[in-house]
C-alpha cells in the first residue's frame, strides 16, 4: 500500500470541503467507539466536510444464524456492510481489523490501518472470584471462550480446565460471566476491546507469549474502501500508522498463506523494531512469533524470527508473512490445518442440520 504524496493529500484536503462522506459500521458499542475515533480523525483534518455514520447489525451480531457456513463464517461481520460500500450507500467502513476476512471481496480494499491498541488477550475473572491466574483455577473450572485459538492455547498449558462457548458483544459476555448462576469462572477477551469501551478495570491479567499468542489483526482498526476510489483513498490514507500497517499486513499474509481463514487456531505476536538511531547500519525490522495448534492444544507448530524490512513497504511486510507461513508448513503446520479443516467440515454439516450458532470468534 503506497502512501499518498503530499500533492495527493493537498488535493484531497481541498476536495473534501463541503462534501458528505458516509461511514458504515456495525452498531455494537465497540464498533461505534472505533467509528467515532475514525470520524474525529477525519473531521480534524477536514473540518469543512461532513461525515455521517450508517450503523447496522450484521449477521454476526444476531444470535442465531442459519446455514452460516454457506457464507463463509468469517464474512459474517462484514458482508452486508461491503454490499453497502459497493452499492455506493457508504464510502468507507470501519472494522476491527481482526474481523476482516484476509481475502476481501472483489472491488473492496483496505484504505488504512490505524495505530494498534494493546493487541494482547486479557483474562477476566468473574466478579468476586478469589483467583488471579488460569493456573490458580481449581480443576474443572470453566473458561468462557468461543475462539478455537484461545481454547487450544489454554488447554495446552492448563489441561485441567474446561472450555465453554460464550457469545455476544463484550458487555453481553461480561454480563454472562458475572451471572451467579452462570457456568463461567472466567472469560478471555481482547484487551483492546475492553480498553476502548472503558472496562480496563475488568482485566485481571494480560496474556501473552509464550502462554497466549493473539489473533491476526487483533487490536487494530481497519478502514475498508472501494478499490480505485482515489478520493476516499487519499482521505483515509493519512490515518494509517506505518508500524501497525507493517505488522498487520505481515500477519494477514501469514494467515492467507496458511489458508486459515476462519476459526483456525493461528496465534501471532508481531513487534515493529525501529532502526537504531545511533546508526548501526540496521534498518527497521519486524519480530514475528506465530503458532498453529491442534484444537485440543496437544500439538503446536511455532516459528519465531526477526526480519529486516529494508524499506520494502507493504510488499516486504507481506513477504515476511509468507516466509513465516512457509517455515510453519515445513515444520508440519499443514497436517494440523488439514485436521482442523476436516473437523470443521463435520461441524458445519451438524450445524446445518441444527441451524446452530456460528463459531466465528477469533
Ligand atoms: N469478533 C469479536 C471481536 N472483534 C474485535 C474484538 C476486540 C477488539 C480487537 O480485537 O480489535 C472482539 C472481541 C474480542 O475478541 O474480545
TrEMBL record:
Enzymatic reactions: 4 porphobilinogen + H2O = hydroxymethylbilane + 4 NH4(+)
The superkingdom listed in its UniProt entry is Eukaryota
Porphobilinogen deaminase C-terminal domain span: 246-329
Q: Does the keyword Membrane apply?
A: no
| Domain Porphobilinogen deaminase N-terminal residue range list | 22-233
Family according to the record? Belongs to the HMBS family.
Asked if Transferase is a keyword of the record, the answer is yes
GO biological process terms held by the UniProt record: protoporphyrinogen IX biosynthetic process
The catalytic activity of this protein is classed by the Enzyme Commission as 2.5.1.61
What is the enzyme's class at the highest EC level?
transferase
Give cofactor(s), names only.
dipyrromethane
Residues of the region (Disordered) are: 343-362
What is the role of the protein in this entry?
Tetrapolymerization of the monopyrrole PBG into the hydroxymethylbilane pre-uroporphyrinogen in several discrete steps.
Name the record gives this protein: Porphobilinogen deaminase
Composition bias, Low complexity: 351-362
Question: Which Pfam families would you find in this protein's record?
Answer: Porphobil_deam, Porphobil_deamC
Q: Which InterPro entries match?
A: HemC (IPR000860), Porphobilin_deaminase_cofac_BS (IPR022419), Porphobilin_deaminase_N (IPR022417), Porphobilinogen_deaminase_C (IPR022418), Porphobilinogen_deaminase_C_sf (IPR036803)
In which pathway is this protein known to take part?
Answer: Porphyrin-containing compound metabolism; protoporphyrin-IX biosynthesis; coproporphyrinogen-III from 5-aminolevulinate: step 2/4
Q: Listed GO cellular component terms?
A: cytoplasm
HAMAP family tied to this protein: Porphobil_deam (MF_00260)
Amino acid at each position: 500500500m503506497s502512501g499518498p504524496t503530499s500533492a495527493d493529500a493537498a488535493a484531497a484536503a481541498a476536495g473534501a470541503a463541503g462534501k458528505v462522506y458516509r461511514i458504515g459500521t456495525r452498531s455494537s458499542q465497540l464498533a461505534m467507539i472505533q467509528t467515532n475515533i475514525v470520524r474525529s480523525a477525519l473531521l480534524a483534518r477536514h473540518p469543512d466536510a461532513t461525515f455521517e455514520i450508517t450503523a447496522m447489525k450484521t449477521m454476526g451480531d444476531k444470535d442465531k444464524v442459519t446455514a452460516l457456513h454457506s457464507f463463509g463464517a468469517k464474512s459474517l461481520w462484514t458482508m452486508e456492510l461491503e454490499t453497502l460500500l459497493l452499492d455506493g450507500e457508504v464510502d468507507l467502513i470501519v472494522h476491527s481489523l481482526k474481523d476482516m476476512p484476509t481475502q476481501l471481496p472483489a472491488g473492496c480494499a483496505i484504505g488504512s490501518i490505524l495505530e494498534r491498541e494493546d493487541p494482547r488477550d486479557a483474562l477476566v475473572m468473574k466478579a468476586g472470584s478469589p483467583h488471579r491466574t488460569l493456573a490458580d483455577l481449581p480443576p474443572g473450572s470453566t473458561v468462557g471462550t468461543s475462539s478455537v485459538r484461545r481454547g487450544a492455547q489454554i488447554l495446552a498449558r492448563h489441561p485441567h480446565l474446561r472450555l465453554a462457548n460464550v457469545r455476544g458483544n463484550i458487555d453481553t459476555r461480561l454480563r454472562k460471566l458475572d451471572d451467579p448462576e452462570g457456568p463461567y469462572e472466567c472469560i478471555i477477551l481482547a484487551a483492546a476491546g475492553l480498553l476502548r469501551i472503558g472496562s480496563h478495570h475488568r482485566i485481571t491479567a494480560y496474556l501473552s507469549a509464550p502462554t497466549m499468542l493473539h489473533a491476526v489483526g487483533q487490536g487494530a482498526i481497519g478502514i475498508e474502501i472501494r478499490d480505485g476510489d482515489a478520493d476516499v483513498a487519499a482521505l483515509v490514507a493519512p490515518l494509517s500508522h506505518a508500524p501497525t500497517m507493517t505488522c498487520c499486513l505481515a500477519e494477514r499474509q501469514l494467515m492467507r498463506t496458511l489458508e486459515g481463514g476462519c476459526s483456525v487456531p493461528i496465534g501471532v505476536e508481531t513487534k515493529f523494531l525501529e532502526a537504531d538511531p545511533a546508526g548501526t547500519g540496521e534498518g527497521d525490522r519486524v519480530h514475528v512469533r506465530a503458532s498453529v495448534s491442534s484444537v485440543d492444544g496437544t500439538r503446536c507448530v511455532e516459528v519465531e524470527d526477526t526480519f529486516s524490512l529494508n524499506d520494502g513497504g507493504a510488499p516486504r511486510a507481506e513477504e515476511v508473512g509468507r516466509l513465516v507461513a512457509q517455515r510453519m508448513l515445513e515444520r508440519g503446520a499443514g497436517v494440523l490445518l488439514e485436521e482442523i479443516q476436516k473437523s470443521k467440515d463435520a461441524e458445519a454439516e451438524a450445524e446445518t442440520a441444527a441451524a446452530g450458532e456460528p463459531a466465528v470468534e477469533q
